[in-house]
What does this fold into?
Amino acid sequence: MKVTRIEVLQADLSGRDSMASWNVVLARVHTDEGISGLGEAGMAYGTGAPAVGPMILTLGERFVLGADPFHTDTIWENLLRRSVWAEGGGPVVFAAISAIDAALWDIKGRALGQPVHRLLGRSTPEPLRCYASQLHLGWGEDGQWVGEPAQFRDVAAQVRGLGFDCVKVNPIMTDHDGKKVTAGLRGLLTPMQRGLFRKRMEAVREGLGPNVDIILELNSMTSTVGALQIAEVVRDLNILFIEEPTHPNSEHAHLKVARKSPIPLATGERLYTRWGFMPYLEAGAVDMIQPDVCLVGGISEAYRVAHMAHAYDVGVQAHVCGSPLATAIALQFEAGIPNFAIHEHHSYATRPANRELFEEDLQPENGKFTVPTRPGFGMTLRRDAEERMTKAGVELRT
It folds into this structure.
């Protein structure tokens, strides 16, 4: 079997269903035996998506066309070493590598008639615990960004009613009107800011009740001093951990927070490869890692990162923020490792525009996710959705 064609399929859904910025980029890899696989670049949010499609095609044309898709490790090393710039890291190149690598694993699973987690050597687990992520963005098909403490309480009660026993919320991203805050969060936080954040977190706890975990999301919007201020403000609210307290490019800043924070820390969605995670693990500065399989280097590298963390007795919660395919990829990865902790179910995973991309609508029941057992990732791109996508491709010349 060999790779004969690689496609990039892009769906810009920005502005639909209250998703301010949402640009899904998929890679589809074809073989000479008629089996194809799908992967995703983890850049649906933010402004990086337009750059990753050309990178997928460039890497694919140079290093993947003509290769045996079963040789995932050989291909991965070629993408890392021979591309030159991948050794320097960065989201665009590793999002592209991740999309290609995932598509190759999808091919292997489809060819062998097995889900990816079984190819990784693990039996199908019981349904995975998951949490409702990004409550500040609202929840459900018509979810809206929230600002007032009462709105935080209501959305918390809403997801609790759906059976979730863990949530994630960012109390600092929005102003009183639910609009995104773009300045004023670096450095010392004012008493007024701290008071608002406290009221919001109290409201979340009130809406959830006492027996539900809360993950405090900071999206690296704070400096070390601000992150520590917030940790002190909420330390009595039984917070499971704080996510991305500082800028992800500075392990030194994260380590400073780790030394002083009364609450455990998690990070990893903007770290790439095992080398990106190594300083945090070696310093004992992280209590949970959150690699994004669609950014860290695909299934191949996410698996290696998870096992490296296992050696440090650190759990794994994959960062999931993409199309239903990203959810499927994360579930297969999490089912395939020994140190899985909890699955992220993003608010945007509940929005119709996102859910309608694939025939399979992956949603949890009572706060738990059944791991699919269809071959590969088990996902089928809807024909009508594909017809609306922008496409480009490269082919093997004969």
